[in-house]
Amino acid sequence: MTAPAQPRPVPTPGDLARRAATAKPTPPRPAAAGLRALSSTVAASIAPGQLKPQEIMRQLYVQGMRISRLRPETRLVALTLLGYANWRHGLLNKHAPTVAQLAFATGLTDGQVRVQLAILTQRGWLTERTLSTGPRAGQRVPQLCIPQLALTRIRNGEAHLG
Q1: 66: which residues sit within 8 A by CB, 6+ positions away?
Q2: CB 102, CB 81: distance < 8 Å
Q3: DSSP per residue, 9-59
Q4: What's the distance, Cα to Cα, between the start and end of the chain in Å?
Q5: Which of 41, 46, 120, 159 could cross-link 63 (Cys pair, CB 3.0–4.6 Å)?
């Protein structure tokens, strides 16, 4: 058996004042540089990953959702969108659903769907692409994509763990 832990003494105001007077000031860190480094790291992790020619978007997107740690409502909206997307590149062309159609298909409200779409966009699972060819050239259309970090984890076989 071990002895019970001794309670820590409660500091008095005088103790706190002495500590503050004798403490060495820490030099300020440049916050902007730290935020830039953090934002570039985050930007690199949510940047759309490049699929290899033999990889199929639909299969990898489902595996990516499995390891994404997104909330169930967000996954539901993402996987519902996957049903409308091109199986090879994830483009939501002419038949992209409206917010009302997504709400009906998922059982969520319009507002909840909008929030989930914003989360998917912020986390790098949904982007907008400007079409460069075809009759709709110049139009912006939504496109499902897999963030580079998730794509790397899928390729490393982490989608089938746990």
Answers
A1: 159
A2: yes
A3: PPPPHHHHHHHHHHPPPPPPP-HHHHHHHHHHHHHHHHSBPPPPTT--HHH
A4: 38
A5: 159
Q: Token pair for residue 94?
A: 């002419």
Distance from C-alpha of 54 to C-alpha of 143, rounded to nearest angstrom: 19
Q: Which two tokens stand for residue 113?
A: 């769907």
Phi-psi region of 48 (alpha: psi -120 to 50; beta: other; left: phi over 0): beta
Structure tokens at 80: 């519902």
**Strand pairing report for 126-130 and 140-144:** antiparallel
The Cα 75–Cα 70 span in angstroms is 6
DSSP state of 93: -
Strand, coil or helix: 81: helix
- Per-residue pLDDT of 60-108, as tens digits, reads 999 999 998 899 999 999 999 999 998 888 888 777 899 999 999 999 9
The pair of structure tokens assigned to 159 is 């989608």
The pTM for the full model equals: 0.69
